[in-house]
Hints:
- The complex is a heterotrimer.
- Chain A is an alpha/beta fold.
- Chain A has one domain: P-loop containing nucleotide triphosphate hydrolases (Rossmann fold).
- Chain A has helices at residues 40-47, 72-75, 94-104, 110-123, 139-151, 169-184, 196-202, 220-225, 230-239, and strands spanning 2-11, 14-24, 29-34, 55-60, 63-64, 79-82, 157-161, 188-192, 205-210, 213-219.
- Chain A starts with a strand and ends with a helix.
- Chain B has a single domain (7-221), classed as Orthogonal Bundle (MetI-like fold), CATH 1.10.3720.
- The longest helix of chain B has 37 residues, at 185-221.
- Chain C is an all-alpha fold.
- Chain C has a single domain, classed as Orthogonal Bundle (MetI-like fold), CATH 1.10.3720.10.
- The radius of gyration of chain C is 21 Å and the shape is flat.
- Classes of the chains: A alpha/beta, B mainly alpha, C mainly alpha.
- Chains in contact: A-C, B-C.
- Chains A and C meet through strand 6, helix 3 and helix 5 of A and helix 6 and helix 7 of C.
Amino acid sequence: xxxxxxxxxxxxxxxxxxxxxxxxxxxxxxxxxxxxxxxxxxxxxxxxxxxxxxxxxxxxxxxxxxxxxxxxxxxxxxxxxxxxxxxxxxxxxxxxxxxxxxxxxxxxxxxxxxxxxxxxxxxxxxxxxxxxxxxxxxxxxxxxxxxxxxxxxxxxxxxxxxxxxxxxxxxxxxxxxxxxxxxxxxxxxxxxxxxxxxxxxxxxxxxxxxxxxxxxxxxxxxxxxxxxxxxxxxxxxxxx
Amino acid sequence: xxxxxxxxxxxxxxxxxxxxxxxxxxxxxxxxxxxxxxxxxxxxxxxxxxxxxxxxxxxxxxxxxxxxxxxxxxxxxxxxxxxxxxxxxxxxxxxxxxxxxxxxxxxxxxxxxxxxxxxxxxxxxxxxxxxxxxxxxxxxxxxxxxxxxxxxxxxxxxxxxxxxxxxxxxxxxxxxxxxxxxxxxxxxxxxxxxxxxxxxxxxxxxxxxxxxxxxxxxxxxx
Amino acid sequence: xxxxxxxxxxxxxxxxxxxxxxxxxxxxxxxxxxxxxxxxxxxxxxxxxxxxxxxxxxxxxxxxxxxxxxxxxxxxxxxxxxxxxxxxxxxxxxxxxxxxxxxxxxxxxxxxxxxxxxxxxxxxxxxxxxxxxxxxxxxxxxxxxxxxxxxxxxxxxxxxxxxxxxxxxxxxxxxxxxxxxxxxxxxxxxxxxxxxxxxxxxxxxxxxxxxxxxxxxxxx
Lengths: 240, 222, 220
C-alpha cells in the first residue's frame, strides 16, 4: 500500500504540490488526470524519491520513503517507473536494457538475467527485438521496452508518467493494450495520463489534479461520467 | 639604451593592436568571401567539385598555420614573385580562414529546411532568388555565432604572422620586441593578453546573447 | 616561372632527424592531451559546483584558455614565469601552454557531452534501483563518450598543430627541426613542403582511425 500524506513540494519559489493526500491499495489502478503543470508528474517522482519533498510523508509498505535512514536504492526495486520519453538506454540492445538492473542490482548471473529479459520482452510483444537497439524501435516499441524493463525487477507497484503523450496516435494503442493486460493481472499501477477513455475503462479510481491539489477523487467511472466539482467538469468538458 | 617601458613602447603596442585589427578585418573579409564561394560550391550537385574542394579544406586544416605561412612565402619566392612578409602573411591567413568559413557556410546552407526552399521554388522563384532571399537570411543567421567564433580565432592567429618577420609588428610581436629589450615580460604579456581577452570575450558574450534571442524568435515561429 | 631546381634529396638525407622531431611532436601532443583531459574533468565538475571559489576558478581558466592566443600562453610560460623566477625549458613551456589550452576547450566539450544526455536517462536508471555510481558508469558515461569522442579527436589534432608554435622559442619538434634544417641547407620550400606533408599524413591517420573506431564502438 502506498500512502501519501499531506505532501508539499516547491521548486524554487513555485509551490507545485500543496498538500496531497492519497492512498493506493494493492491491486488498484489509480489514474491521475489534470492539466499540464498541475503537479501530477512531480508527485510520481516524489513517490520513489527521485524528487525530495518539503513536508508530509510518503509511505510505501510501511516504509517512510524520505526518511534519512531509508535505503532508497533498495526501495526503488519495489517501484517501477516509466517516463514520457527518452526511457530506453540507447547504447544497449533491448535485451541488455531489460537485463541490466537484474544483473547489477539483483546480482543475477548474465545467463539468468538474459532469460528473464527475454521473458518480459515476449510479454510486452517484443519477442523479435531482443538484439535491436532502441534507435531502430518505434516510439511505441520503446515505451513497451521501458515497461518490460521496469517489470523485470518484479516491482510491487508501477508508476507511469504520461507514457503515451509523446507517441504518434497510431502507436498509442499497443501501449495501452499492454497496460490493460497488466491491470488484468492485478498489478498495482499509478498512471498520470491524458487518455481519459482509457482511465474510465481500466482504472479503479481517478484523481483530478488542479493547481497542485487533488480537486476531486473517486471511482473511475463515476468521476469521469459524473464529475461533481466545477473544475473537474470544466476539464473533462474540454477533453471529452 | 633605455631599459624601462617608455611611451614609445606603449605606442608600439597600440599600433600593434591596430595592426592586429587590420590583419583580422582584411583577411577576415577576404577569407569569408572566398570561403563563402567555396562553401556554396560544395552544396552543388557535382561530386568532383565537392571532393576536390574538400581535399583543399582538409589540407588547410591539417597543416599548422606557421608552416602554411613559411611554405607560401617560400613558394612565392621560388615562383619568381617574392612577396613582402606582410602581404604573403595576409594572403595565407585569408586562404587559411576560408577553409574553415567554407565549412560553416556549407552547414548554414544545408541547415535551411528543404521544405522551405521547395516552397520558394514552388512560388516560382529561381534558384538564385531562393538562394539570396531565403537561404542566405535563414542559413547565415543560424551560423553567425560559429562564423564569429572563427573570426575571433583568426584574431588570435594573427599573432603567428611574426614568424615571417612581418612589419609593422602586430600586437604579440610588438610585445616580444619590447620584452627582449626591457626584460620585464610579465606586465607586457598581461597587457597584450588583456587586449585579446577583452576583444574575444566581449564579442563572444554579445554573440551568445544574439544567439539566444534568435533562438527565441525561431521557437515562436514554430 | 620556376627558375629553381627542386632538391628533394637534401631532405631525404635528414630524414632521421625529421622523424625524430615528429616523434617529439607526437609525444608533446599526447602528454598535453592526457594532462589537459585530467584537468578538464576537474574543471567541468567545478564549473557546476556550488562552491563559488571552485566555480570561478573553472570559469576563469576556461575563459582565459579560449580567449587568448596559444602563442601568448607559450610566451607567458616561457618568458612570463621567468620573471617570477620559474624558468621553464622550451619543451615544458610548450607542454604547459598547450595543456592549459586543451583543458579549457576539453572542459567545454565535456560539459556539452554531459548536458546532451536527457535527464530522464538518469531518472530511469535510478528508478530501477541502480546506485548513483552504477547509473553514472553504465548509463550516463557511455552516452557522454559517444558525444565527445570526435570533438576530443579534433582537439588532439589542434594540439598537434599547436606544438608547431614551439619553433618560435627554439624547440625542435617537427616545425622547429624543419626550420633549423632549412636554415642549414637553404632549401626552405622543400623542407617545409615535406613537413607539411608529414603533418597532413599524421592528421589524416588520426581522423581516419577515429572515424573507424567511432563507427564500430558507437553502432547504436
